[in-house]
Each structure stands twice: as structure tokens, then as C-alpha cells.
Write a structure and sequence with these properties.
Number of helices: 3
Strand order of the largest sheet: 5-12-7-10-1-2-13
Strand content: 35-45%
CATH architecture: Sandwich
Number of domains: 1
Radius of gyration: 17 Å
CATH topology: Jelly Rolls
Structural class: mainly beta
CATH class: Mainly Beta
Shape: globular
Bound molecules: 2-acetamido-2-deoxy-beta-D-glucopyranose
């Protein structure tokens, strides 16, 4: 069992390649992502479940696999951060900024493809969120300066470099979602991706 799980994981590096078996429309799974939101002028960590369910792809090349539409985007950027890098607090007027990576002027998807990011919130000692590069590496940053006074803090404590794709949404879109919990998504909010590989 453990061996077949590992094999499926290694052969299943992207959603599009995962076989997607046995899910009817009624039980179509939905993606949960950790989001950095804002409330009362402060950044928050939340687990969002996106309203758009996974559907069975009809696109040649990924036909039959699980596919979710995450919305319209405007740009694609890539950042490479050395191991053990401290990115500083997101940019705010009058505050020092050691790295612009964390300064999201607009709502932005961030896909960590390697390494590790540790997101913490100023004045919050809950431990923050550790985001591992890879299949569970997608987060959404919505704590723009107009809604969060102090932003959030990001370090990259991994032992290898952290590579991230930054993908701002188009025209300030926020993907329709429900907040599943306050705090980052837990393993049981994300592990469902692996079940897409089914038993085949
Ligand atoms: C993406 O843009 C199209 C065309 O402007 C629009 O119809 C659609 O509603 C947008 N999608 C989302 C998720 O906002
Ligand atoms: C905050 O700024 C973002 C990015 O410019 C914008 O899309 C959003 O509408 C603004 N929100 C408010 C409440 O002003
Ligand atoms: C998910 O895991 C957390 C912590 O391990 C637990 O408290 C929670 O009940 C679990 N939720 C579900 C739906 O299993
Ligand atoms: C999202 O989280 C819910 C529990 O809150 C879980 O039932 C579901 O399987 C998760 N989706 C994925 C794709 O892991």
C-alpha cells in the first residue's frame, strides 16, 4: 500500500497528469489552498476551498484527468530565492524592505515549485504556515496594502533554493471561495489531490 502510494505520487507531479477516476459530478472534489487574507487591517492566514470543482479534462493531452479552472491571470513571474533566505515584511510605507518578492500590489497566486516558504503574521505567534514546494505549493495572497497595514512576513528556511511562480490575477479577481478554516490548510485539506490517482 505504502509502496503503491509513493509510486503514484512520483508519477503524478502535476494535476493535469493525474488520472482522475471514479468521481461523479455530484462529488467532484474542490481545491483547498492556503490564502493570506486580511481582516480589520491585518493579514490573516485562511484555508480557502475554491468554488470551482475539479472536472474531467476534455483537452487533448490531459483528457480524462482532473482539471480545475482557477480564473483569469495577467502575468507570470518567477523568483529564485537562496536557501535560508529572509524575504522581509511585505512592502509598506515607511518600513524597510529587504526583498520585493513579498510585495504583492495586486491579488496574486504564488506557486512554490521547490524549496520551502514560511509565512508568518506580525504580532501573531500561532506559528504561521509552512508551504512546501511541489504539488501542495499553491497559495493565494490577498493582503494588498490597502487592506493590510503591516502585511505578512516570509522566510525561506529550506535547505535548497525556493523557486516560486507569481501569477497576479486579472483586474483584481479573487477566486470565488469559502473559508474552510482560519489558519493555513491542514494535511487533510490538501491530501485529497493524491486520491485523484485512484486505485489504478
Ligand atoms: C475571466 O474573464 C472572462 C472574460 O472577460 C469572464 O467572462 C470570466 O467571468 C472571468 N473569470 C472569472 C473567474 O472571473
Ligand atoms: C485593494 O487593492 C487591490 C489591488 O489594487 C484592488 O484590486 C482592490 O479592489 C482594492 N480593495 C479595496 C477594498 O480598495
Ligand atoms: C483535520 O485535521 C485536524 C488536525 O489534525 C483535525 O483537528 C480535524 O478534525 C481534521 N478534519 C477533518 C475533516 O478530518
Ligand atoms: C478540501 O478539504 C475538504 C475538507 O475540508 C476535504 O474533504 C477535501 O477532500 C479537500 N480537497 C482536496 C482536493 O484535498
Amino acid at each position: 500500500m505504502a509502496r503503491s502510494t509513493r509510486a503514484l505520487v512520483t508519477s503524478c507531479l502535476t494535476l493535469a497528469l493525474c488520472a482522475f477516476q471514479g468521481a461523479s459530478a455530484a462529488e467532484a472534489p474542490k481545491l483547498n489552498v492556503t490564502a493570506i487574507g486580511a481582516s480589520g487591517g491585518k493579514s490573516t492566514l485562511e484555508c480557502w476551498q475554491l468554488d470551482a470543482p475539479f472536472a474531467v479534462s476534455d483537452t487533448p493531452g490531459t483528457r480524462g484527468s482532473a482539471a480545475a479552472t482557477l480564473g483569469n491571470v495577467s502575468n507570470l513571474g518567477m523568483t529564485v530565492l537562496p536557501a535560508g533566505f529572509d524575504g522581509g515584511v511585505t512592502q509598506r510605507a515607511g518600513q524597510p524592505v529587504s526583498n520585493i518578492h513579498c510585495d504583492f500590489p495586486v491579488y496574486t497566486w504564488v506557486m512554490f515549485i521547490s524549496g520551502m516558504a514560511h509565512v508568518t503574521l506580525p504580532g501573531d505567534d500561532s506559528g504561521g504556515a509552512y508551504i512546501l514546494g511541489g504539488e501542495f505549493g499553491l497559495i493565494f495572497a490577498a493582503d494588498t496594502a490597502n487592506v493590510s497595514e503591516k502585511g505578512h512576513y516570509t522566510r525561506y528556511p529550506g535547505i535548497v533554493e525556493t523557486v516560486a511562480l507569481q501569477i497576479p490575477t486579472l483586474d483584481g479577481e479573487i477566486p470565488p471561495h469559502q473559508v474552510v478554516r482560519s489558519g493555513p490548510c491542514l494535511t487533510n485539506n490538501t491530501a485529497g489531490l493524491r486520491s485523484f490517482a485512484g486505485s489504478g
